[in-house]
Design goal:
The complex is a heterodimer of chains A (298) and B (294).
Chain A (H helix, E strand, L loop, with lengths): L1 E6 L7 H12 L3 E4 L20 E6 L3 E4 L9 H5 L5 E4 L2 E4 L9 H5 L5 E4 L2 E9 L3 E7 L6 H19 L11 E5 L6 H7 L4 E6 L3 H16 L4 E6 L5 H13 L3 E6 L4 H7 L10 H17 L1
Parallel strand pairs in A: 1-10, 1-11, 2-9, 2-10, 11-12, 12-13
Antiparallel strand pairs in A: 3-8, 4-7, 5-6, 8-9
Helix pairs in contact in A: 1-9, 4-5
Chain B lengths: L1 E5 L7 H11 L3 E5 L7 H4 L3 E15 L9 H5 L5 E4 L2 E4 L9 H5 L5 E17 L10 E9 L7 H18 L4 E5 L6 H7 L4 E6 L3 H16 L4 E6 L6 H10 L3 E5 L3 H8 L9 H18 L1
Parallel strand pairs in B: 1-8, 1-9, 2-7, 2-8, 9-10, 10-11
Antiparallel strand pairs in B: 3-6, 4-5, 6-7
Helix pairs in contact in B: 1-10, 5-6
The chains are: A alpha/beta (298), B alpha/beta (294).
């Protein structure tokens, strides 16, 4: 099974809209949403997803807790903590759970055994699994560990696919898994790139879009992963679209197409539909992009 | 006064709101905390640029002193250390720089060196705004994460420190605009933790609404006063308005989609320098927030 990851660097360029359309066109039986701190793919209806997913807790780093009975308020933990996670309220010390990274230094340093490390639920994984496998997750507010959660989302997808041997069914001409990524270039993005066969970058023709595209391409390059580029809302700036095409030629990156700005896009999304389900110029452009990617991956 | 601008969903117009708000404020400092993809400097084009490197600490091992007890490897909660070929080895990307290995080492074999993970760029932008007689300066502070680095937090912290300390010490009334990263995870939280007010920029779509609820939860958790700015407000999304009414969240401003805004923004122009109407709307937005904060 080939894995396609949709990324953008900049947010809001149309990752999820593109991913949802590609899922529809390719009839992919396996897909995942790795944008764990702002997941949206589940909002685009796909009648093939069963309503009730299997939900499980995701444990991130442990968090420390101070036992106020044992604590003698010596303040050693506050001195040694590098994350400003220890707060003094009155005479008593407390852990700020949002700052605590679970390093265990305070537990080690405490001469009275007043600090213990406890498991912490950092998010929630959901697996929809009947005709299709859909793996998604939601990070708890303000938590770190988004990279680990992304890895867990992908593992959940792979495990479920292996279990049901989707890879071996000859139902479709080619099986590929489509993964919706998150904006940025940091830990969740790096974790999502790991092990995929192709990254599709959805770029936006603005100076911001170009700058962000170049940073995500370099990130994928460091991770030695093949990248192709498409431009969304290309007609909002033909000039910048041409700059993007020029950058792709210079870097020998395959350019798979341009999608026009389409007012129907938001309307379709608000109704929970993919662009693939309606007839419009953007939908046609996405179909051409799907065919190009299909050729690259086969 | 420190105003954080955030959104949950990417691309809703955080940077658009941030740079335009900075453009209408007095003694403004703009801090770009979206260090993975910093874009504010494409609009507020700073000059007199200084680059300040951002480092984290990384342990180094003295092979002559190491007795091979593996206490450091066993201690590390992030599994950043392994013991191979009779010595500890570090995976720098996984290290959180907690200093734990150094603490547990009885042989005094561990020291820390600095590893650069990004830079903070500071500069000034001389604005020529419509409606403003003077050519006021905007301090522009940009955090830039090195490509391939996982954790944005150290760069955000440094950017906040450099951006906040200086202006608040030197002038009486300063306005600091913090352009936050998308999402609702640790880096968004770090960016808003020192703010006095949060502007949530929302797009009236199903996606925008869903992610908005997530950041609203984050902002409420941190007890920050907040209000929303609806961007591309032409096609209303009723569940959003109903939610704001029930939760009593003020709608501070609505910005309709205008091709001229999109065109100017795509070229890196600050729209309030060209459009008087929008300029006055942003002045109004700033005043509404000042009333809450001051």
């Amino acid at each position: 099974m080939k894995r396609l990851l949709v990324l953008s660097g900049k947010g809001g360029t149309g990752k999820t809209t593109t991913a949802a359309a590609l899922i529809y066109f390719s009839k992919a039986s396996a897909f995942a949403d790795c944008d764990v701190d702002a997941p949206n793919l589940h909002l685009v209806s796909n009648t093939r997803i069963d309503e009730n997913g299997k939900v499980s807790d995701f444990y991130g780093s442990k968090k420390s807790r101070i036992d106020v009975e044992k604590c003698v308020n010596c303040g050693l933990c506050l001195q040694k903590c590098r994350f400003q996670a220890i707060q003094k309220i009155g005479a008593q010390y407390y852990i700020n759970e949002y700052h605590c990274e679970g390093c265990g230094v305070c537990e080690f340093i405490c001469p009275h055994g007043a600090i213990v490390m406890q498991d912490d639920i950092a998010g929630e994984l959901t697996l929809h699994n009947n005709e299709v496998v859909f793996s998604t997750a939601k990070l708890k507010m303000g938590r770190g560990n988004s990279g680990k959660l992304v890895t867990a989302v992908k593992k959940q997808l792979t495990d479920a696919c292996n279990e049901f041997q989707i890879e071996n069914t000859m139902e479709h001409e080619m099986e590929f898994a489509i993964i919706d990524g998150s904006p940025g270039i940091g830990c969740p993005v790096i974790a999502s790139i790991n092990g995929v066969d192709l990254v599709l970058v959805v770029a936006e023709p603005s100076l911001s879009g170009i700058s962000d595209m170049e940073r995500i391409i370099k990130t994928a390059d460091i991770l030695q992963t093949k990248v192709v580029v498409c431009v969304n809302k290309y007609d909002t700036s033909i000039e910048n679209t041409e700059s993007i095409e020029q950058i792709c030629r210079e870097k020998s990156i395959e350019y798979v197409g341009r999608i026009p700005y389409d007012k129907q896009a938001s309307r379709a999304i608000n109704e929970g539909k993919t662009l693939a389900e309606i007839t419009c110029p953007a939908s046609d452009a996405l179909y051409e992009i799907y065919k190009a990617i299909h050729n690259i991956l086969k | 006064m420190r105003i954080a601008v955030l959104s949950g969903k990417g691309g809703t117009g955080k940077t658009f709101v941030s740079v335009n708000l900075a453009n209408v404020a007095e003694n403004a400092t703009y801090i770009d905390c979206d260090v993975e993809e910093p874009n504010g400097r494409l609009f507020l084009k700073p000059t007199q640029i200084k680059e300040i490197p951002v480092y984290t600490k990384l342990p180094i091992f003295d092979e002559n002193k190491c007795v091979g007890c593996r206490a450091c490897v066993n201690f590390c909660h992030f599994n950043a250390l392994v013991y191979i070929r009779n010595k500890p080895k570090i995976f720098p990307d996984v290290c959180h720089s907690c200093g734990g290995c150094n603490l547990v080492c009885n042989a005094n074999a561990i020291q820390e060196e600095l590893r650069q993970v990004g830079i903070v760029e500071t500069g000034v932008y001389n604005r020529t705004a419509v409606g403003l007689e003077d050519t006021n300066r905007i301090h522009v502070v940009t955090g830039i994460l090195n490509i391939g680095e996982a954790s944005a937090i150290p760069v955000i912290k440094e950017a906040m420190e450099l951006g906040c300390d200086e202006p608040e010490k030197s002038v009486k009334k300063s306005t600091i605009i913090i352009d936050c990263p998308p999402g609702s995870s640790c880096s968004a939280m770090e960016s808003i933790s020192e703010s006095d007010y949060c502007i949530l920029v929302v797009e009236p779509t199903a996606f925008g609404f869903h992610n908005f609820k997530m950041v609203y939860e984050l902002v409420s958790l941190m007890n920050k006063p907040c209000g929303i700015v609806i961007n591309k407000s032409d096609l209303p999304y009723l569940p959003l308005n109903q939610y704001c009414e029930i939760q009593n969240i003020p709608i501070l401003m609505e910005i309709p989609y205008k091709e001229v805004y999109a065109q100017l923004s795509s070229k890196g122009e600050v729209v309030t320098q060209h459009d008087t109407e929008l300029f006055h709307q942003f002045v109004g937005l700033l005043h509404r927030i000042e009333e809450v904060c001051l």
